[in-house]
Write a structure and sequence with these properties.
CATH superfamily of the largest domain: Histidine kinase-like ATPase, C-terminal domain
Largest sheet: 5 strands, parallel
Number of helices: 12
Order of helices and strands: EHEHEHEHEHHHEHHEEEHEEHHEEE
Number of strands: 14
CATH architecture of the largest domain: 2-Layer Sandwich
Structural class: alpha/beta
Shape: elongated
Helix content: 40-55%
Strand order of the largest sheet: 2-1-3-4-5
CATH topology of the largest domain: Heat Shock Protein 90
Number of domains: 3
Radius of gyration: 30 Å
C-alpha cells in the first residue's frame, strides 16, 4: 500500500528546528506547504493553505501554540501536533483542552513524527465526529423545546375553546336554541380540526427528518391539482381566484412532500392574500434548478418579518401572521432535504411571492398541465 502523502504546515520560530522537521517530513514523502514563525502567522497560513496537519511549536512570539491551536480549531479545524522542548502533565492537559492530537519533544526523530501525525489525525477525526454529534444533539434539544412550545401554545388555545364550547352545551344545552348549539358545534369542529392539523404537521416533521428517499420525476400538474382539492373548502369560502400555467416543467423530488409544500403555500396565500385572494402559481428555469412560486395580492410582509419566516419554529409577533411559523419551517426542511432552497419576496401593499427550488429533470419533455 502506497503511503499517504500529506500536506504539512510547520509553525516553529527556531530556524534550525524548522529545518530538521522539514527534512524529516520530506524524507517521509510529505509536502511542506510553508513555515510560520509565530502563532498569528500559523493561524492565517492554516486557514489559507488548508494543510492536512500542522506541526506547531508550543512557545512562539506574539501568540503561543496553545492559543494558535485554539483559534485554528475555531476558524479552520485542522489536526495539530505540538512541538515542545519539555514534557509535562500540564502540557498534556493544556494541549488536550484546545484539541491538540499529539505532541513531540524536540528534537524528534522520524518514527516519532510519523506516529504523532497518525495519532493526531485519528484523534482529530474523533473530535470532529464528537463535535458533529454534539451539534446534532443541540439541534434535537432545540426541536424538543420547539415541540413543547407548539404543544403549550398552539394547541392550548383551540383546546381551551373546545372545552369551553363543550361546557356550554353540557351546562346549558336544553336552554340553547338550535342556532346557538350549531354555532358551538361548528366552533368545536373548527378547533378540533386545527389541533389535528398541528399534530399532522408535527408527524410530518418527524417523518421528513427520519426517512431517506430517492428523488423521482414529478408530475407537478397532478400534485398541484391534488393540493388545490385539499384546499377546496377554503378556496370556496374565500372566493379565491387561482391561475396556473398551461404546462409545468418537470422536476425531481418526492411527490407526497411537495404536495405538502404547495398546500402550505396555498394556505398562506388564502389566509393572508387580498380580499378576495388572487393567487398565481408558476415556475421558472434557473441553471439546472426549477423555481416554483405562489404569488398573492395581500398586504405584503415587511423585511424584518421576511428574514424570520423560514427560521425553524419561530413565531412572528403579529397575531395575523402567527400561522406562518411551523408550516414554513417544515417547508424549508422538506425542500432542503430535496436539494432545493426556499425564499420569499414581498412589497408592502403589493403582495408576496413564496418560492422553492428543485433540481430539474432532463429525462423527458415537460409534463402537461
Amino acid at each position: 500500500m502506497t503511503p499517504e502523502i500529506l500536506r504539512v504546515l510547520i509553525a516553529e520560530d527556531d530556524y534550525l528546528v524548522s529545518i530538521v522537521v522539514r527534512g524529516l517530513l520530506e524524507s517521509m514523502g510529505h509536502e511542506v506547504l510553508g513555515e510560520a514563525a509565530d502563532g498569528e502567522e500559523a493561524v492565517k497560513m492554516t486557514c489559507a493553505l488548508r494543510p492536512d496537519v500542522v506541526l506547531m511549536d508550543l512557545s512562539m512570539p506574539n501568540m503561543d501554540g496553545v492559543e494558535a491551536t485554539r483559534l485554528i480549531h475555531e476558524r479552520c479545524p485542522t489536526p495539530v501536533v505540538m512541538l515542545t522542548a519539555y514534557d509535562s502533565e500540564q502540557l498534556v492537559r493544556l494541549a488536550g483542552e484546545v484539541g491538540v492530537g499529539a505532541y513531540l519533544v524536540k528534537p524528534p526523530n522520524r518514527s516519532e513524527v510519523e506516529r504523532a501525525i497518525i495519532i493526531a489525525r485519528a484523534r482529530f477525526g474523533d473530535m470532529m465526529e464528537l463535535r458533529r454529534l454534539n451539534a446534532e444533539l443541540r439541534d434535537r434539544n432545540e426541536e424538543l423545546d420547539a415541540f413543547s412550545h407548539v404543544v403549550a401554545h398552539d394547541l392550548q388555545n383551540p383546546l381551551g375553546l373546545v372545552m369551553g364550547f363543550a361546557g356550554v352545551i353540557q351546562s346549558y344545552g336544553d336552554r340553547l336554541g338550535k342556532e346557538e348549539r350549531d354555532k358551538c358545534l361548528r366552533s368545536i369542529v373548527k378547533n378540533v380540526t386545527k389541533m389535528s392539523n398541528i399534530v399532522d404537521e408535527l408527524l410530518l416533521l418527524g417523518q421528513v427528518r427520519k426517512i431517506s428517499i430517492k428523488p423521482q420525476p414529478l408530475e407537478m400538474a397532478d400534485i398541484v391539482r391534488e393540493a388545490q382539492n385539499r384546499m377546496a373548502a377554503m378556496i370556496r369560502e374565500r372566493q379565491a381566484e387561482i391561475t396556473t400555467p398551461p404546462m409545468w416543467p418537470q422536476a425531481l423530488g418526492y411527490a407526497p412532500w411537495i404536495e405538502e409544500v404547495w398546500v402550505n403555500y396555498l394556505s398562506n396565500a388564502l389566509k393572508y392574500g387580498g380580499n378576495p385572494p388572487k393567487i398565481e402559481l408558476g415556475a421558472t428555469q434557473e441553471e439546472g434548478m426549477l423555481r416554483f412560486w405562489v404569488r398573492d395580492n395581500g398586504a405584503g410582509i415587511v423585511s424584518e418579518q421576511r428574514a424570520r419566516l423560514f427560521t425553524p419554529f419561530e413565531r412572528l409577533d403579529q397575531i395575523h401572521m402567527q400561522g406562518y411559523g411551523l408550516g414554513l419551517s417544515i417547508v424549508r426542511l422538506i425542500v432542503e432535504k430535496l436539494s432545493g432552497t426556499v425564499g420569499v419576496e414581498s412589497t408592502v401593499g403589493e403582495g408576496s411571492t413564496f418560492s422553492f427550488t428543485l433540481p430539474a429533470w432532463a429525462g423527458e419533455e415537460p409534463a402537461k398541465g
